[in-house]
Structures are given as structure tokens and as C-alpha cells.
Amino acid sequence: MIIQTERAICERLRQGLGRMSSAVRSYGGELDGDIAEIARQLPAVWVTFGGIQKTENVNVGKRKYKTHGRFVVIVGERNVRSEEASRQGGPNLNEVGTYKLIAAVRRLLSGQDMSLPIEHLIPGRVRTLFNTPLEHQALSVFSCEFDTAWIEEALENGAFPVVGAPPDSVDSIFTGYQGEVSQPDPDWLTTRLDYHIPGSHRLSDGEDIISHD
Description:
Layout: H1 2-17, E1 24-26, H2 35-41, E2 44-57, E3 64-79, H3 83-88, H4 98-109, E4 122-134, E5 137-153, E6 190-195, E7 206-211
Parallel strand pairs: 1-2
Antiparallel strand pairs: 2-3, 3-5, 4-5, 6-7
């Protein structure tokens, strides 16, 4: 669900932001490089997974868990006029400013589930990563947090992922890696119903067999 959610966030922002950002993609350490190299990529938006905040049991059998995850959208802009303009933008369309990017990202993502089996995204903290002058321009970068939750199902005690899991199954992540697998449960073909009359000493006073073919 982490992969699907990150990709869906990227796609929604890519569609919604249009030319406000030169790129929207999964974060790959771009902000760890040289400042001049970072500046050449701006304005840009990156998306990354911020971690699982907590996990709660949601059923008696302790086989289903509600997982609370956080995703982070990083927005960055540069401006040749001033540090203030890198945040607030300017009179030209290409002077977006990080404040406008923050508002746009929160507007596009808040309350959305992107048609995935997750809870609607809840906007959280917005934090300054850095405001940096660089020669004749200024850089401004912020992070925007969004929280959501989804249900994860545990394997039965002692079981391994099912062999030949379909592509839409969570167990498909193990396909091709030659790990231990379990056979799928047999199909439920019939149900037998036994009837007992009060006071009767018979093992069964009648039966029905229901076929599930």
C-alpha cells in the first residue's frame, strides 16, 4: 500500500500542479547534493514515505491491523530577486513561491484517497527545510506532511505467503524470490448441516448437504 499511495500522490500532484512545478517525482535524495545542483531543479515537488506512526489491532483474532502511515511532500522554489520572493512568489507566473506551492499541495491532497483502500489524507505539519541564499538567487524548501491509514492482514500463525499469489495480492511482493511458501486453503465445496430433535438419542435426526460449486 505504501508504493501505491506514493505513486498515486505523485500522479495527482502532477495532474493538478501543471506548470507550477517543473517536476513531480518520488524523492531520491535530491536535497542531499550540492546547493547549486538543487537550485537548477527548482521549482520542484518530491514525494516520500515518512514512516508508520502506529499500528492497532482491529479484530478479536488479532489478524487485522490498522496501520497509520505518513507521507511527506517536499516543495522547493528559487528566485533571483530575493529570499522573500522565493517564498511569496512574484508578479510573473513563473515566480510561484513556496507558499503558493504549499497551499496548492494541501488543496490537491487533503481529504483524498486516490481511489485506494486507505483513509482520506489528513494534512499535518508544514516545516521549513531551508531558506538559503545562493550567489544571485535564493532557495526556499518546505515539507508538508499528510497522514492516512489502511488495513493490513497478518498471515496465519506458522504460515508463509501463498504460492502463486495473484498480482493484486499483498503476497505478490514475494513472487520470484524463492522464499518459503504455503499452499492456498482448499476450496470450500460443501457444507453439511445436522439436525437434532430435543430428546432424541440419535446422532443425527436429519441432514442437508449444501454444494458451493
